[in-house]
Amino acid sequence: MREIDGKTRVCGLIGNPVEHTLSPVIHNTLAQRMGQDLVYVPFLVEESRVEDAVKGAYALNVLGLNVTVPHKSAVLPWVKEIDPLAEKIGAANTLVRCEDGFRAYNTDMTGLHRAMLSDGIRLEQEKVILLGAGGAARAVAFLCAHTGVEKVYLLNRTVEKAQTVADEVNRSFGRECICSMALDEYDRIPGGGYLAIQCTSVGLHPHVDDVVIADEAFYEKLHSGYDLIYKPWETRFMKLVRENGGQAYNGLKMLCYQGIHAYELWNRVTVSDEDADTVLQKMKEAMGIDG
Ligand code: ATR
């Protein structure tokens, strides 16, 4: 890290907990490579102190904040402006300093979009199966509608939650693009050639043998599978995708690109593909992954 001096700017992460975050690796690597006088630090913030944290950070001339669980919606009342996608989703993970306050963005979703593009997946041209209806799945459903995906099958164990998310997104975009189903109704999905995005918490470390759908017949419908999980490096969902001839990806690149987009917004720069690759490599090293 370069010397801290009187001009050093501060960015940081607010959340609870924050100690296992990989975000300092992303931003401090970028600052070093791109020569910006910037440090990035985690800030543990209690749920009752979100307003204080956002206003305090602004008062301290903090350049930008990332926001993680459980504050992604709780920050919104305390920002000056909200980007349209973040506004629709109702959650933000990036606050950018502007005049008189912060502007909130959802770079989790723009990051997922960019991660997919870098893997050769053009979301807007895909037929999508979304697994889950929690906070992450809901945001991805908004992203799909926002990018113009024609049809999304949204499957969840609790079908009422899938229905609620589908209704909300369809209403918000004025078209019936999300179709909700119970998890065990996957055999009703017509044809094949789908991209599946795994947005449930099933298979997350340490429950690495769990998978949301175990039936191989489901995986035959897919050409690719994206798991938002990156611990373990290869989930059972990903293994099943690969065993059935599909391409599988984990969530680390999404995490990398959400950080890159935040960095670009804070510093008004464009991060090159080469710098993005270096960041991803550093993240893997921090996780103890080879290669
Ligand atoms: P996040 O904010 O990460 O999306 P969440 O809101 O807690 O987390 O959502 C977790 C998702 O994983 C939900 O879709 C949940 O399904 P339910 O809505 O039916 O609870 C799903 N999930 C968790 N454990 C599951 C399990 N054992 N089988 C199937 N789905 C599961």
What does this structure look like?
The chain has 291 residues and is α/β, with parallel strands linked by helices. It has 10 helices and 12 strands. The protein has helices spanning 23-34, 50-59, 84-89, 107-118, 135-147, 159-173, 216-219, 236-243, 252-267, 273-287, and strands at residues 9-15, 38-44, 64-67, 81-82, 94-98, 101-105, 128-131, 152-156, 178-182, 194-198, 222-227, 247-249. Strands 2-1-3-5-6-4 form a 6-stranded mixed beta sheet, sandwiched between helices. The protein has a 6-stranded parallel beta sheet with strand order 9-8-7-10-11-12, sandwiched between helices. Strand 5 and strand 6 form a beta hairpin. Helix 1 (23-34) packs across helix 9, helix 1 packs across helix 10 (273-287) and helix 4 packs across helix 9 (252-267). It is globular. The mean pLDDT is 97. The chain binds 2'-monophosphoadenosine-5'-diphosphate (ATR). 2'-monophosphoadenosine-5'-diphosphate binds at residues 132-137, 156-158, 161, 199-202, 212.
Identify the notable features of this structure and list them briefly.
291 residues, alpha/beta, six-stranded mixed sheet, six-stranded parallel sheet, 12 strands, binds 2'-monophosphoadenosine-5'-diphosphate
Layout of helices and strands:
Blueprint: E1 9-15, H1 23-34, E2 38-44, H2 50-59, E3 64-67, E4 81-82, H3 84-89, E5 94-98, E6 101-105, H4 107-118, E7 128-131, H5 135-147, E8 152-156, H6 159-173, E9 178-182, E10 194-198, H7 216-219, E11 222-227, H8 236-243, E12 247-249, H9 252-267, H10 273-287
Parallel strand pairs: 1-2, 1-3, 4-6, 7-8, 7-10, 8-9, 10-11, 11-12
Antiparallel strand pairs: 3-5, 5-6
Bound molecules: 2'-monophosphoadenosine-5'-diphosphate.
2'-monophosphoadenosine-5'-diphosphate binds next to helix 5.
